[in-house]
Each structure stands twice: as C-alpha cells, then as structure tokens.
Amino acid sequence: MKNFYAIIMAGGIGSRFWPISRSAHPKQFLDILGTGKTLIQQTYERFLKIIPAENIYIATNDIYIPLVKEQLTGISEEQILGEPIMKNTAPCIAYASHKISLLNPDAAIVVSPSDHLILDQEAFSKDILLSLEAASGNNCLITLGIKPSRPDTGYGYIQYTTQTIGNSFHKVKTFTEKPNFELAQTFVQSGDFLWNAGIFVWSARSILSALNEFLPDMNDIFREGASKLNTEAENAFIHHAYFQCTNISIDYGIMEKASNVYVLPTDFGWSDLGTWSSVYELAEKDYVGNAVIPSQNVMMYDSSNCMVKVPKDKLVILQGLDDYIVVESNNTLMICQKSHEQHVKQIVTDVKSKFGTLYI
C-alpha cells in the first residue's frame, strides 16, 4: 500500500449549513450529526484504515490550517496543503498531484471531499482499494457513482455504458449537472445513471497526463514550479501560483472532457450532507418525525417533521411547526421551511450585504 495516497479536500465554506457553518469555522470542522466527531475527523479516520498515515494529504484554505492541526493530531505540517485563495477543485488537485508525483511517480491517488457521510465503512474501503488497484494498472480516471434511491435534483448524474475494465468499472457516457425533477426521474427509471459522489481515483501519471491535455496552462504552472514543491520554497511558490490558476472544477475541466473516464457503481450508504434536509434524512427522529440535535432542552408541541439543531445550554419551545428547519448558532437564529432551504445561500448573501461579515 506504500503507493496508495489520499487527498482530502477541506477548503469549502459550507454556506448551505449557515448559521452553524461560518466562513471562520465551516461544516467540515463541525460535528453536524452529533456523533462526537467532526466530518473531517470521520473522513480522515476512514482513510487511515486503507492508506498509510504519511500518505494522506489535506488540501485546505490557509485560514483553516490551525483547525486541521487541532482536529487531526496525526497530520504533519508537510501533509497540509494550504491554498491562499479559493479556486475550486482543479487547482488543488493539480497542486497535490504534482507534489505527490514528485515523491512517488508510481502513486495511485484517491481524492475525496472532507464533509461527506459514509455509513458502510467496510464496503467503502473495499471499493476504494479496488479502484486504487485498477488505477495502478490502467490509464484511466475513475469516479465513484452512487446507485440512486430517488430522483434527487441536488446531485449530478453519471450515465455509463456496458464497456468495462475488469467487469467492475464502466465507461462513462455522459455527465449531467443537477437536472430538473422530470429528467432526474427519467434517469433513475432508466437504470444506467448514478449519482456523482465527487470521489475520484487515478494514478499520478494519468491525472498529470489529463491536466496536460485539458488544462495545460494550469498544469504548466505547477510543472514549472516542480523544483520548489516539497521544499521550504513551496509555500511562497503556491501563494504566487494560485493567483495564476483558472477557477474551475475538476469535473468541468477534465472529467467531462476526457475519453478514459470510468465509474464504479457503489452502494456504501453515502450522503454529501449538502443541506439540512440531508441531515434530517439521516438523523434519528421521534414518533412524529422530528429530528432534534441535541434533544435534551427542546420541547415540541403540535409540531412534526422538523429539523432542529440548537445550543445545548438553551431551552427551546416550539409549537405548531410542520416541516421546518430551526437552527441557532453564533448569535443567529434561522427558522426556514424545509421546502425552501435552497434559499439559504441567498439568505447568507443578503445577510452579508446588510451586516457585512459580522454574522457570516
């Protein structure tokens, strides 16, 4: 396993989980589900089971480096890749891939978000190891696809063909970003579409080749700085390099364009925990469908199907609410219909416009 590496992406601000997720302390560093461990801690421990500890890298914004050090005590300074500015997923993957390739040209790499939930750890480990082995022996870019349980409009979809590598990895035909409900329904009924989990596996050689072909300008930035990576000059180089990079996702920049993309259909109990409704779906509920985290100091009257997360030290009484999100944190209370939670991002924008960064 010495050739297996992991890149955990932990630079997002998680605005859809406002007001609990703030720009100074975003959702990957929070215990959203009340498990006793933050999302990044769960992700890190998940990979520790299958990847050598020294081969796990955390890509995050510079301002979150202290949080990474605080929450992941086994991580060394060299394993934290600080980004000076948010530029989406392609630059951080290019940076980490060039760095790892210089250390080990035979590396096979799994790239994963830091804030997803995996319920079946054993199945996840098995699928990641299978993918790393396939990536080591083939020039391919692998993405993990989740068998859809419903026509969800919040996920991207992957259509695959019968052409395979090793009978497990299917050649990708199309990517579709967040379709409307009717189209999502058609996708699920067809049986040849999967949710895009945003988890990727490839060899260092394959991803660097793809970067060179599809994002050559970005690739050249990191290739030309190769002598500075893994040295004391790395940080200064990255601070200069990032401002030259295009703001683009790896999905749009490479995965939707490359001809050697394959998907592994998986079923390991995945959720991207993208919204409060996704937390509600996973949380324990009372007999009328209320999910309350924590439940000790919340009293509910004539209320059902609500998602409630409030401070432990506050008594909260709710009466006559159905299908609402009630969240309090950081001197902010938000009460919002679950069916309208897609407006949370706009609410955050409006709050910032009116109050500046005080509540953001």
From the structure above, extract its key features.
alpha/beta, globular, about 25% strand, single chain, 5-stranded mixed beta barrel, about 350 residues
Structure overview:
- This protein has helices at 39-48, 65-71, 89-103, 121-137, 181-190, 204-214, 216-224, 234-241, 250-255, 276-282, 344-355; strands at 4-9, 56-61, 80-83, 108-113, 117-118, 141-146, 157-165, 169-176, 193-203, 261-266, 270-271, 291-293, 298-301, 307-309, 316-319, 324-329, 332-337.
- With 360 residues, it is an alpha/beta fold.
- The strands form four sheets. The chain has a five-stranded mixed β-barrel. A four-stranded mixed β-sheet has the order 12-14-16-17, with helices on one face. A two-stranded antiparallel ribbon has the order 5-11.
- The longest helix is centred in the middle third of the chain and has 17 residues, at 121-137.
- The chain is globular and about 60 Å long.
Topology overview:
Layout: E1 4-9, H1 39-48, E2 56-61, H2 65-71, E3 80-83, H3 89-103, E4 108-113, E5 117-118, H4 121-137, E6 141-146, E7 157-165, E8 169-176, H5 181-190, E9 193-203, H6 204-214, H7 216-224, H8 234-241, H9 250-255, E10 261-266, E11 270-271, H10 276-282, E12 291-293, E13 298-301, E14 307-309, E15 316-319, E16 324-329, E17 332-337, H11 344-355
Parallel strand pairs: 1-2, 1-4, 2-3, 6-10, 12-14, 13-15, 14-16
Antiparallel strand pairs: 4-9, 5-11, 6-9, 7-8, 7-9, 8-10, 16-17
Helix pairs in contact: 3-6, 3-7, 6-7
